[in-house]
Specification:
27% of the residues lie in helices and 42% in strands.
């Protein structure tokens, strides 16, 4: 499942992918800015947007963690 928010022409795109396989969940996140392609969540470019995606991924991880 992929969650996408934003418009590449106006605000850039935020994306989170959730994969489930063999009882394991893998979360991946990236942004796509106004110029260029997909950008991973490390590095300084787009830091504010990346921080928002990372926070959302942390919330998802907490929600699906088995305790």
């Amino acid at each position: 499942m992929i969650w996408i928010k934003g418009d590449v022409k106006l605000t850039g795109v935020r994306a989170i992918k959730v994969d489930y396989y063999n009882d394991k969940v893998k979360l991946s996140g990236w942004i796509r800015g106004l110029v260029g392609g997909e950008t991973p969540l490390h590095g300084i470019a787009g830091a504010v947007t990346k921080r928002d995606v990372k926070k959302t991924m942390e919330k998802l991880q907490s929600a699906i963690s088995v305790k």
